[in-house]
Design goal:
The complex is a heterodimer of chains A (489) and B (251). With 489 residues, chain A is an alpha/beta fold. Chain A is 23% helix and 34% strand. In chain A, the strands form three sheets. In chain A, strands 5, 6, 8, 10, 11, 13, 15, 16, 18, 20 and 22 form an eleven-stranded mixed β-sheet that branches. In chain A, strands 4-3-7-9-12-14-17-19-21-23 form a ten-stranded mixed β-sheet. In chain A, strands 1-2 form a two-stranded antiparallel ribbon. Chain B is of the alpha/beta class. In chain B, helix 5 runs parallel beside helix 6. In chain B, strand 4 and strand 5 form a beta hairpin. In chain B, 42% of the residues are buried. Classes of the chains: A alpha/beta (489), B alpha/beta (251).
Chain lengths: 489, 251
């Protein structure tokens, strides 16, 4: 209840069309020369002191990328991207790797402070008493700091930047990198494999329940710079980890590219819960600027009885192209996808999931809530498939869309393939509008129009909100309220 | 005191006049009933009092305690003390009754320059009001009106009315869809809210509701105008003769 009120407060405080995180940090940076060729990749690899095998892997990915073409099947429309007109590497000067907090540039600490992300270990997330969250902060192309590393180490958990993992834990990285999203997987994943600059690495050893929430906070600051982060999370047998990812970027007139790859691997009896609150700059009210978000996220339930759960709250980006998926390889494994996608202004979202049932008795659940306002287009695209050996595969899918106003669109594109007659797939979908009747009813009870919309939308997304870590539920409700500002009247 | 003066109104989209010169005064502390045949404009009058923007006032005025409310937004009118008990209350999936009620109560309190209620204060008040109205608050843990029976919906409306402490209560066909027992519970609730400071306008098609909620005055609305006014016995007369008299008048 309190959260609903604070949503309302938040909505009141901020003017329409103001993106809260749109500030820019004045900080000197080191950049690779503009454009993309082998030298760019060698430069990135060298900056990171990578071993030779890593460079070779990147170059191989680049070779493959050159033979590929941009996918055009999604319901998104944008001018062609000139991949030679981008910077592929940008790092704050003197920050080549995560250090202790004392050494981090105060300007950077201040940036994260402004964003409400605590990097000092004695601090906790604003307004959340007692919640400890370890944070890996990625600024443009590099990880600037990772908190609570020592405490995690005691539990045997490795949580560091992927660059550090490549240097310090090459055996783990080599064993798992690219095993869920191969370097030839798709256009953007291959590009990422060639030029990824940083990201997070998590390894939770056998039987360990990670003692705190882990999170990565991505920030794009530099102009004309693409962000290509790579995240790899491995939960060994019987391990459990919950991970949260957040993203913001300054307001700019130009469009910026973000192409990330996230790979999750759950071995026998392991569980990974991955939550995203994506709030990249969505562009202004006329559709100018904003982040192009082309992301490949995939989890592999490699072991028996393993479980991977994706929860995403998508409110930002001019274009979102993102399908966090699960490969249900282990017998009795389970995949979940819970999504709230809010689009306003001229945003375009094409997002959904794939549940690939390979093992026996695998089950999956999809709950997607799309909210379209303004002139936005919001598409759910999903695949549920059962291999012929996936006996007794089960899926339940629920896709609900809510339209606000008369100029937006909601689309649902579900694909279902069952190659075994024992599969049991259910699909439910609804599309509704916030009717004038409902608004009037709430307003007659004293709520302003914006308060009424926020209340109705929060009710609409409640099933999914409940899947988020407690600490982030209130935050998310606020975010949804802000994203829908100015959507009525 | 509610004063409706020569009120003309139309449906905006259809450009169709519905109310054609209503004059009506409901003094503070009185309960008035508006009866009339289907399509006479009863519900339109209720919506216009609450400020629904599908309707436009083309002439005349509505004064609430001497001030015109015609230009006010629905939420401002709610804060000014106007409450409409809906004939068909809306469902709001995913929003628990308690959340809705607390949001509404605090929204109204804020606009009235009162302190917002804390959770314990709010819970205490709900329990007290629900107790007075003989309503089980278990109902409020479910999403607003979702899957409610007709009786539950109307009970929930009456509880909201009680919580928001309005000064003008407009009840739009509150008896529709109620069986005799539910009708009694709802009427008892309304009667409990009668007070010398509060005005009520009870809109109904049938006389039976007025056996339970006994009005000070009865008005007959037909063809967009008040055709006759009288005491509570007028309702009984209508029960016998029907509305035929008024349809002939139009023809």
């Amino acid at each position: 209840m309190a959260a609903v009120e604070s949503t309302i407060e938040q909505v009141k405080e901020i003017d329409v069309d103001k993106y809260k995180y749109g500030f820019e940090t004045a900080i000197e940076s080191v950049k690779a020369p503009k454009g993309l060729d082998e030298d760019t990749i060698r430069y990135i690899s060298a900056r990171k002191n990578e071993p030779a095998w890593m460079l070779e892997w990147r170059l191989d990915a680049f070779e493959r990328w050159k033979t590929m073409s941009e996918p055009t099947w999604a319901r998104v429309d944008y001018p062609k991207i000139d991949f030679q007109d981008l910077y592929y590497y940008s790092a704050p000067k003197n920050t080549d790797g995560p250090k202790s907090l004392d050494e981090v540039d105060p300007e950077l600490l201040e940036t994260y402070n402004k964003l409400g992300i605590p990097l000092k270990e004695q601090e906790v997330l604003a307004g959340v008493a007692g919640a400890k969250v370890a944070v890996d902060a990625v600024f443009d192309s590099v990880s600037v700091v990772t908190t609570f590393k020592d405490e995690l180490k005691k539990a045997g958990v490795i949580f560091c930047s992927i660059s550090e993992a490549i240097r310090e834990h090459p055996e783990l990285v080599q064993k798992y990198l690219g095993t869920v999203v191969p370097k030839s997987d798709n256009y953007y994943a291959s590009l990422n494999s060639a030029v990824f600059s940083d990201g997070s690495f998590v390894y939770v050893p056998e039987g360990v329940r990670c003692p705190m929430e882990l999170s990565t906070y991505f920030r794009i600051n530099e102009r004309e710079t693409g962000q290509f982060e790579r995240t790899l999370i491995i939960a060994d047998k019987g391990a459990y980890v919950s991970y949260l990812e957040g993203c913001t970027a300054p307001m700019r007139d130009e469009n910026q590219l973000h192409a990330a790859v996230v790979e999750l691997i759950a071995l026998d009896d392991a569980e990974i819960k991955y939550s995203t609150v994506q709030n990249w700059y969505p562009g202004d009210k006329d559709g100018k600027g904003g982040i192009y978000n082309f992301v490949t996220k995939r989890g592999d339930c490699r072991g028996a009885n393993s479980k991977i759960s994706w929860t995403q709250v998508e409110t930002g980006s001019a274009i979102t192209w993102k399908y966090p998926s699960c490969i249900l390889r282990g017998d009795n494994s389970r995949g979940e996808f819970y999504s709230i996608a809010v689009s306003n202004g001229h945003q375009q979202i094409d997002s959904g999931t794939k549940m690939i049932h390979l093992g026996k008795n695998t089950s999956s659940r999809i709950v997607s809530k799309g909210i379209a306002a303004g002139f936005s287009e919001n598409t759910y695209r999903g695949l549920v498939s059962a291999h012929r050996k996936a006996a007794n595969a089960r899926n339940f899918t629920q896709c609900d869309s809510l339209l606000i106003g008369n100029n937006c669109g909601a689309h649902t594109v579900p694909y279902i393939e069952a190659k075994t007659s024992t599969a049991h797939f259910e699909h439910e979908a609804t599309t509704s509008k916030i009717s004038d009747d409902k608004l009037f009813y709430c307003m007659q009870r004293g709520l302003s129009e914006e308060e009424a919309v926020t209340l109705i939308v929060n009710g609409f997304v409640r099933d999914v909100l409940q899947q988020l870590p407690m600490e982030f539920m209130a935050e998310t409700q606020k975010l949804i309220g802000i994203s829908l500002e100015g959507s009525v009247g | 005191m509610l004063e409706i003066k020569n009120l003309h109104a139309r449906i905006v989209e259809e450009d169709k006049p519905i109310l054609k010169g209503i004059d009506l005064v409901v003094p503070t502390g009185e309960v008035h009933a508006i009866m009339g045949p289907n399509g006479s404009g009863k519900s339109t009058l209720a919506y216009i009092l609450a400020g629904r923007d599908d309707y436009e006032v083309t002439e005349g005025d509505i004064l609430w305690n001497g001030e015109s409310i015609v230009e006010m937004e629905p939420d401002e009118r709610a804060a000014a003390g106007v409450f409409l008990a809906f004939q068909y209350p809306m469902e709001i999936p995913g929003v628990a009754g308690l959340t809705f009620l607390r949001t509404a109560v605090n929204a109204v309190r804020k606009k009235r320059d009162q302190d917002e209620l804390t959770t314990p204060e709010f819970m205490k008040l709900v329990k007290q009001k629900a107790g007075e109205l003989n309503i089980d608050i278990e109902m409020l843990k479910r999403p607003v009106n979702v899957g409610f029976s007709g009786g539950e919906k109307k009970r929930s409306e009456i509880l909201q009315m009680s919580m928001l402490e309005p000064m003008l209560c407009v009840l739009d066909e509150t008896d529709s869809g109620l069986d005799i027992d539910a009708l009694k519970v709802v009427s008892d609730g309304v009667n409990a809210l009668r007070s010398p400071e509060r005005s009520m306008l009870v809109i109904t098609h049938y006389q039976r509701l007025l056996n339970h909620i006994v009005p000070d005055k009865v008005h007959v609305l037909a063809h967009g105008k008040i055709q006759r006014s009288g005491g509570k016995e007028l309702a009984l007369e209508l029960e016998k003769s029907g509305y035929a008299e008024f349809s002939e008048k139009a023809a």
